[in-house]
Design goal:
This protein has 182 residues and is an alpha/beta fold. It contains seven helices and six strands.
Length: 182
Amino acid sequence: MKIIGIVGVWDKADERLLFWQYLKESFEKEFPGSEFITEHEYYMFWEIRKIKEFITRIIATYDNGEELIFVGHSLGGLVALVSAIRLKNSKMRLLVTINSPHAVVPLRKALGIVPRKFDFPVLSFAGMFDVIVPFFVSKYKYATKHKILKSAHLLSYVRDARFSKQIAEESWQIYNSSFVSH
């Protein structure tokens, strides 16, 4: 199984490496035998054409029949969501969003997101101290589970690997329970 980490808008290269390294280590521990791959494209939230091109590239790269988990931070969570629902060949096993702007209607509309339930579990995380994407904006309406972390938008994740560990552990629980319930 592949776990695809989709980086958000303001994740700088040095911060991204540390945050995403923590996530990679934590997810590969919780999901033995999986491969964690990080995808990044530099774009700003108003560059909708560029975001859509990034989504197209993710689908072209990973829609090859494998089982997938997408983990997206910030706007990367919306990129992950759109990518997940457009897969035709691969089996989406779990979508994890971290501090993602689910309730920002103009972004949702621009990306063609209509909030709904999916045939795969969705786990959304929000940061209690996030001033960029406040916790009430990060909740996906139809999430299987929504969790509020005592974190900020990015800095908390860069400084403390415990957040990545908690995200991976919660993800494993949701993933594991989705097989029990089916």
